[in-house]
Amino acid sequence: MMRALIVDDEVHARRSLEAMLERTGEFAVVGRCGNAVEALHAIRAEKPDVLFLDVQMPKVNGLQLLSMIDPEIMPHVVFVTAYDEFAVKAFEENALDYLLKPVQKDRFAKTVDKLRRALGEAPAGIYDGPPIERIPCLGTNSIRLVDLADVEYVHSGAAGVYVVTTRGEHFTELTLQVLEAKTPLVRCHKQFLVNVRQVEHIIREGPRETVLRTRSGKDVPVSRRFFPKLKEQLGLRL
Fold first, then answer.
1. Cα 83–89–94 angle (5° rounding)?
2. What CATH code is assigned to 2-121?
3. Which class would CATH give 134-234?
4. Would 8 disulfide with which of 54, 67, 92, 188, CB 3.0-4.6 Å?
5. β pairing state of 97-100 and 134-139
6. Where in the chain is the domain with CATH 3.40.50.2300?
7. What is the DSSP letter of 174?
8. Cα(50)–Cα(95) distance, rounded to whole angstroms?
9. To 5 degrees, how large is the angle CA 155–CA 158–CA 177?
10. pLDDT tens digits, one per residue of 125-143
C-alpha cells in the first residue's frame, strides 16, 4: 500500500481525491490537510510515500511548501491544479506528475502507474523551491506569516521550534535545518539561529563564552563551534 497525504484548501477537492485513491485499493490515505502548516506537521508525523499537493493555496502555496520540507523526508509529489500553466512549473520542480482539476479517471490511472514504478525504482525528487521570505507560524485558529525582518532569533527545544520577535514567540512547524538553508538566518548554536541585523551587542563573558544581545534586549547564546562563521557574517575580527 502506498501511503498518501492530500493537501488542498478545498474540502470538496480533498474528499473527491480521497475517494479516487481509495477505489484503487492501492493507497492508504494517512492525512488530509487544508493548509501548509497542517501539511508540514503531517509530513513529519506520517512520512507519506506520496504527496498530492494543490498548487494554489492561500498564505503558503504548494511550491512554497516544498521549500519548507526537510529533504530526508521528502515524499514523491503529484501536483493537483486547476491551472494548466502550473504543469510546466511542476516539472521544473521535479514533481513526479501533475493532475488537472477536475481529475479525469484515465489521467489519474496514468499517475497511479507512474507512482507504482517510481516507488520501487527512484527516490523522491529534490526541490529547490523559492527562498522563504515569511515564516508560517501557528496562531489561534490561524496561520501567522512572520516577516524575516521582524525575526530576532529562532530556537528549538522539547516543545518544538519557536520564532522570536519583539512582540513575542510563535510556534512553527519548520525545522532549524530548513530555516538555515532557506533564509538568511545564521546558525549560532545547535539550538539557535539568529538574525544578524537584529544584533546590537556582542558580549564576551569569558574566553569561551559569547552572547548576542538583540535590539530589544534578548540574549542569544553562541557556541564555540559556530562562532567563526558568525564572526564572518558580522564582519568582526574578535
1. 130
2. 3.40.50.2300
3. mainly beta
4. 54
5. unpaired
6. 2-121
7. -
8. 11
9. 45
10. 777 778 999 999 987 778 9
